[in-house]
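FW: tagging you since you asked about this chain on Friday. Here's the raw sequence from the shared folder, copied in full. Didn't touch anything.
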Amino acid sequence: MCFLYMFDMLDFDGNGNVCASNKYDLSHARSNFLYLVSKYNQNYLQENGLSCPAFFKEELTGILSNVAGGGDFEKAKKVVISNCLPKVQLYAQTSKNERELIAKLNENTSIKDEEFAHKFDKVVNSLQLSYVITMISGKLFEKVALQTANSDILADCKSRSKTFKDIIKYNGLVLFADRVKENLMSVQDFINLMTSIA
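HL: got it, structure written out here
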């Protein structure tokens, strides 16, 4: 099973479905799950130069609030996913559970990021790459841990959005590091991916 770290925004039970975390009850964890799916979808939209559908700007917040208040999660999940890109819908249809859906979304999300792309331009081997990834992911982990520990930050829409995007970045970065480590991706492939936007 691939690495996923949710920073206590939600958790998965033994069957791979969303469950309460140390910080959030089941209803809030489910709401966070739906928000995370919408953020992965937003990444895909941005990667393809597509604009965000009105649903995510006008209706999503109400649906998330309803689920957080104990509303019908399964119904909300269908509505959110039906408004996502076809590939997100396909991952949902072919996933056995909610953890697998997040894993598929994570495996197919680009981690290109201007914020740290330039840090890879002098890397020449896997040892250096491992060091740089460890440094970046460590700083990102600390940043997200601080953000998720502060409920005031998460109450602000822009800050909450940034926090969930950082969760996606962190999980994506660790996934790509594992791919390099397991020789599923060369160091040069990783560097080309990261520096293509630098």
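FW: The mean pLDDT is 89.
HL: agreed, and The first strand starts at residue 11 and ends at 12.
FW: great, closing this out.
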